[in-house]
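Hi L., both proteins are below.
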Amino acid sequence: MAPRKIIIDTDPGQDDAVAILLALASPDEIEVLGITAVAGNVPLSLTAKNARIVCELAGQTGVPVYAGCDRPLIRPLVTAEHVHGKTGLDGPVLPDPEMPLADGHAVDFIIETLRKHDSGTVTLCPLGPLTNIAMAFRKAPDIVDRVQEIVLMGGAYFEVGNITPTAEFNIHVDPEAADIVFRSGRPIVVMPLDVTHKALVTKPRNDAFRALGNKVGIAVAEMTDFFERFDKEKYGSAGAPLHDPCVTAYLIRPELFSGRQVNVEVETRSELTMGMTIADWWGVTDRAPNALFIGDLDADGFFELLTERLGRL
């Protein structure tokens, strides 16, 4: 079977970096057509830089990286240096990228790519705020029906919020963009905190990354060494959750994940619950299902896959 064509939309972020590395290490299953950077964990200048750093770490300098939106659709930008450090990739010491940004805007690349490829053959993989995707849908409504699927990391239901009491960071940063995407009518798979908090990098799992002995394995171990301090202190967990790699792992081995087809709506009016993803998990409304909301994963299988693939780079 031909590899699945994807665009990774991202705001790296250590866990974004691992998600990108997993995709680049899996060419039999995934063809990365391009990477589009968006402001989120850190400002756009850093996310666009970090995406190129990760490509060079993987030895994949032929993947084009485009800079996209530097702020949410209508709101001031909220960032997360308190989690990811001032660079977004704090932990390992990685050189500045030599590869240039691709010419053009990320939103235009998304539009042109969806128009160029056969309808229903390109999957969008957002790992950060959904600003670039929403802007592309607004600017070129004809592309919406050409999207094969949207597999995204964002939201929460049973795990409530990690940036506010009720909202997950990616959705909270640009709830209006998320609302556009969830109302798009395209097939959506959601990796919320409910599942990503089960993808914990415990010490044995991080030791396995480091034991790979390659640059990638050591860098990933150092990344998780850095950002696990936040989650251990906040949640009392055994390690850091690898949120974003759940997206690329799903593309490679969907059988590792389970969830329900439910209706998901995004709160855009109440400042108290802004960015909350309201998932009708129990089917108590008559709202039509619009997303596969993932609730569980085989964590051992996930880390076996991730470790094996990182070892290829």
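That was the first. Here is the second:
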Amino acid sequence: MSSFVPTSPDTLADQRLYTEVGFVDVACLDCLATVGVKKNSDQHTSVQWSTEALGNCQEFARQEQGPVRRDVHKPCPRMMASIDDAVRAGVVPIGEVEGY
């Protein structure tokens, strides 16, 4: 259950801007996971994982089978390498999109 459901048109527009605008689909070079990626700068990368992508990530599946569950804030190194490749190839632009 959501703790906050936006209803204001301005809030909905902001939510769309931060979660949809400028994201590019990037497929992992090792598994079937595809995530949304946005780079606002060289240092800032936003990655949006869908439920399907999480289920397809073989690295996360291996980590979940271990004695200690994975740190949810630790990225998949294979996906990060795929994102880096997409950035170098120019598939993922770096910089502001529609003001954000």
